[in-house]
Inverse folding.
């Protein structure tokens, strides 16, 4: 491939890609940026299926992208990138499932709260109405029954809410609160594949004894949104550093990436709903994250240098 | 009754009307607002002694509104009402100086008794003896 001619068969392509990939991830390169580099012939993209009979016999589908790169003096070579489509697809599906589960739960909880409002106005007006009835009035008895039934309804709603919470909490949450360390480690495991794919090295520096009293799923949602943004910003790899420590009853978390950064004139917009600079972005990630953080008495801010990277600072009250 | 001006802030129409009715019957002068703009307007003009605040208001949460209201009337006393039983919010509200926290649906007569008590006792917005009501803190009354 180095000579600029395309290999002949799909099998060969995969062989050479695998060879380059294995080689590349074991070595560090410095790209000299003296002279500008050009992608000459645009890019060629093909999709190939590949079955590794010797290893796992699984069928892999690779999305392979070739670009011929030149500097001002002449041909340098070609750039080959590839993604395992099936694994990528699986990962996306898993993430989508997880997110829709979270969304469903939030929705159920907010319906329950919305139902409590009319229950309250009915109950209140009944109490006002009751004042005009004598003790021996049948209507007094009836309104008592209605009020009792409303309270029973309310108890059922409370039971539903607490069952729902119990059902979905896992080891990350215990009576000490939610562990920041375990939550972040779980999310990193979840993103392992995309991190590897993008050539992102991560470093975690997380204190053990950090607990917050936050709904576990909402905490996970915060980290999913922020880490995902960092991964998306680091198209060319780099370092992702996550730190968490406690000081004076507050917990401090820093998520630092070496991604594209945020343009100065966009800094005030990024927390607005639907603001996104990504082709398939929703623009809701930071908006939702900030809402959750505020709701739990925390605070968050972003510091970014365009072209260098972004650091997100989170602060939470420590669970007492 | 002294200190009897109450501002009720809730975006639920019938809850506002119902609370206004029951507080008026108990001798309060009640004003209602359904969002923070209306609330601040009334606070300026009427200088209410007590504010009853829903936690979830359109575009703003009750605690943030309380800090704006305190700029208009520093001595205002706050009682929160909420449809959700988020215990973290309760403890934050209490540290911000709220006098009570009621979970919807609650007993409106216990609620008025509590308001009468704070309006006559001259209880400061922060201070000891917050929970001198019979039966413990009203925050635990859920029905
Ligand atoms: N770590 C980051 N690095 C660079 N830009 C970021 C980062 N985090 C957020 N942004 C910018 O903020 C915008 C909004 O982010 P977000 O609310 O998560 O929505 P989305 O990721 O769907 O675009 C992004 O489109 C991006 O421009
Ligand atoms: Mg995002």
């Amino acid at each position: 491939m180095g000579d600029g001619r395309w290999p002949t068969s799909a099998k060969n392509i995969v062989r050479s890609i695998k060879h380059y990939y294995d080689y590349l991830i074991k070595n560090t390169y410095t790209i000299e940026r003296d002279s500008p580099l050009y992608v000459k012939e645009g890019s060629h993209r093909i999709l190939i299926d590949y079955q590794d009979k010797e290893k796992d016999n699984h069928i892999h589908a690779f999305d392979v992208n070739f670009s011929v790169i030149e500097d001002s003096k002449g041909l340098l070579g070609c750039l080959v990138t590839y993604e395992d489509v099936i694994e990528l697809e699986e990962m996306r599906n898993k993430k989508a499932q997880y997110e829709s589960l979270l969304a469903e739960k939030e929705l159920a909880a907010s319906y329950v709260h919305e139902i409590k409002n009319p229950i309250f106005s009915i109950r209140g007006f009944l109490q006002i109405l009751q004042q005009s009835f004598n003790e021996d009035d049948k209507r007094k008895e009836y309104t008592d029954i209605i009020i009792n039934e409303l309270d029973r309804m309310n108890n059922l709603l409370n039971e539903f809410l607490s069952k729902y919470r119990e059902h979905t909490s896992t080891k990350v949450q215990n009576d000490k609160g939610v562990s920041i360390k375990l939550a972040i480690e779980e999310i990193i495991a979840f993103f392992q594949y995309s991190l590897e794919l993008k050539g992102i090295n991560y470093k975690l520096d997380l204190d053990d004894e950090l607990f917050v009293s936050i709904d576990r799923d909402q905490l996970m949602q915060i980290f999913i949104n922020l880490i995902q943004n960092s991964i998306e910003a680091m198209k060319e790899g780099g370092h992702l550093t996550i730190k968490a420590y406690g000081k004076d009853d507050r917990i401090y978390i820093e998520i630092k990436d070496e991604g594209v950064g945020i343009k100065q004139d966009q800094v005030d917009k990024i927390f607005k709903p639907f603001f996104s600079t990504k082709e398939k972005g929703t623009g809701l990630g930071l908006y939702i994250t900030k809402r959750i953080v505020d709701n739990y008495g925390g605070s968050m801010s972003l510091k970014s240098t365009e072209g260098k990277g972004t650091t997100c600072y989170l602060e939470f009250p420590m669970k007492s | 009754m002294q200190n009897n001006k109450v501002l009720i802030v809730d975006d639920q129409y019938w809850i506002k009307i119902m609370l206004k009715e029951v507080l008026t019957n108990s001798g309060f002068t009640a004003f209602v607002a359904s969002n923070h703009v209306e609330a601040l307007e009334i606070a300026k003009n009427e200088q209410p002694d007590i504010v009853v605040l829903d936690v979830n208001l359109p575009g703003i949460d009750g605690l943030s509104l309380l800090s704006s209201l305190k700029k208009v009337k520093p001595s205002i006393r706050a009682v929160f009402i909420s449809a959700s039983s988020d215990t973290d919010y309760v403890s934050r509200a209490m540290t911000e100086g709220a006098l009570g926290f009621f979970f919807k649906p609650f007993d409106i007569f216990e609620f008025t008794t509590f308001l009468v008590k704070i309006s006559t006792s001259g209880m400061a917005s922060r201070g000891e003896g917050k929970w001198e009501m019979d039966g413990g803190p009203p925050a635990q009354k859920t029905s």
